């Protein structure tokens, strides 16, 4: 084979390999450009990733199953009533009312499945970056990322709002309102963290 023929052959081989490489890259790029579920997109705004996504279906059906009466009592006072609100505009909610003599105290939990704009934990990190929150304290429970947050400047004593990630695009959001004179209760945000822990445990067991 002459030198010129060899150069031409090598040139054709390189062209073929390049075309094959581009074709392979194009094949891989196609799925990435197609629509994908929000849960697979990953967190945004520097939010931590949920380690293992949890299925909220059991809480959507029976929102008050997240905590037993004994677990509620461990928060600081016996359970007076558990009121489910499966048709709440943001998603299924349960309101647990404590039996206290000093004044009304309660905690509620909501699966934000009915609010497509919620954005999961990423949504809270995004609000923090744009100055939309007056309180922002990340935490984790059982390895799952959460945030204590507040958008108000004059929140009532004994109240706390927090969220824990069930998936990258979905949170379980907790609101705690305690009578601050009731001695058995700890800090309202610490109560909320315990609720988050019970919810995660419940879902990790498959909703049992």
A few lines on this structure:
With 208 residues, this protein is α+β, with helices and mostly antiparallel strands. The chain is built from 5 helices and 7 strands; from the N terminus they run H-H-H-E-E-E-H-E-E-E-E-H.
Largest sheet: 7 strands, antiparallel
Q: Count of helices?
A: 5
Strand order of the largest sheet: 1-2-3-7-6-5-4
Radius of gyration: 25 Å
What is the topology?
Elements: H1 3-33, H2 57-61, H3 69-73, E1 79-85, E2 93-98, E3 106-111, H4 120-129, E4 135-141, E5 144-150, E6 159-167, E7 170-177, H5 188-204
Antiparallel strand pairs: 1-2, 2-3, 3-7, 4-5, 5-6, 6-7
Descriptive account of the structure:
- The protein has 208 residues and is of the alpha+beta class.
- The chain is 33% helix and 24% strand.
- It is globular, with a radius of gyration of 25 Å.
- Residues 1-40 have low confidence and may be disordered.
């Amino acid at each position: 084979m002459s030198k010129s023929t060899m150069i031409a052959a090598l040139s054709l081989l390189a062209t073929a390999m390049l075309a094959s490489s581009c074709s392979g890259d194009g094949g891989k790029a196609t799925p990435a450009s197609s629509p994908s579920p929000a849960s697979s997109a990953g967190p945004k705004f520097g939010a931590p990733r949920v380690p293992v996504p949890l299925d909220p279906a059991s809480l959507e059906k029976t929102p008050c199953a997240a905590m037993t009466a004994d677990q509620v009592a461990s928060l600081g006072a016996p359970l007076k009533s558990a009121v489910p609100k499966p048709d709440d505009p943001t998603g299924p909610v349960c309101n647990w009312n404590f039996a206290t003599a000093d004044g009304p105290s309660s905690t509620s939990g909501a699966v934000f499945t009915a609010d497509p704009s919620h954005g999961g934990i990423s949504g809270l990190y995004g609000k923090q970056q744009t100055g939309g929150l007056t309180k922002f304290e990340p935490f984790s429970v059982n390895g799952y990322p959460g945030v204590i947050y507040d958008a108000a400047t004059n929140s009532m004593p004994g109240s706390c709002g927090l969220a824990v990630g069930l998936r990258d695009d979905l949170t379980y959001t907790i609101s705690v309102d305690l009578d601050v004179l009731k001695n058995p209760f700890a800090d309202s945000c610490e109560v909320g963290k315990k609720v988050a822990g019970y919810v995660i445990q419940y879902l990790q067991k498959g909703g049992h």
